[in-house]
Amino acid sequence: MFFFKRAFDLFAVLVTSPFWVPLMLVIALIVKVTSRGSVFFSQKRYGKDLKFFQIYKFRSMYSDAPKDVPTHLLQNPKSLITPVGRFLRKSSLDELPQLFNVLKGDLSLVGPRPALWNQDDLIAEREKYGANSIPVGLTGLAQISGRDELPIKQKAALDGEYAKKISLWLDLKIIFLTVIYTVSGRGVKEGGEN
Description:
By secondary structure, this protein is mainly α. Helix content is 48%, strand content 10%. It has a two-stranded antiparallel sheet. Strands 3-4 form a two-stranded parallel sheet. The radius of gyration is 16 Å and the shape is globular. The model has no long low-confidence stretch (mean pLDDT 90).
């Protein structure tokens, strides 16, 4: 199953590259000219079978913001996120560089979102459902079921549900719903914001 999943990921990313590569260049330029610091942000995350990798994002926060704090634990997110970063996060465009992670094989298009290296609570919950042994993804069942609004236990249960039902058709459905939810901004929550 994972062979076909990987083949689909590569095909989808390469076929759509004429769209996302120019978009990334424009976003990179905007990030560079609107705030100090590097254009990209990398972070240590758990991958399949709990192997670490560096995930890539467009930098959406000021360069002195905390580097390894999960979104739901941010204490005053408005003061940490740049004006451009707010739009990038709301639209999920900050995650476009993760398509390079997909090409490298760190990520699949669909799977549990990769946990931060210090999110032991999420990793422990996922272990109960067998969700640590499947490829992590750019989007997943939890992202279309509430995203940042979900508690850890519910996210892990959804990741486990995905692990049991994994299929190309389910991946296509999740990708389709991700596009719809991303356009609407549904489920995006920064720290204590409503």
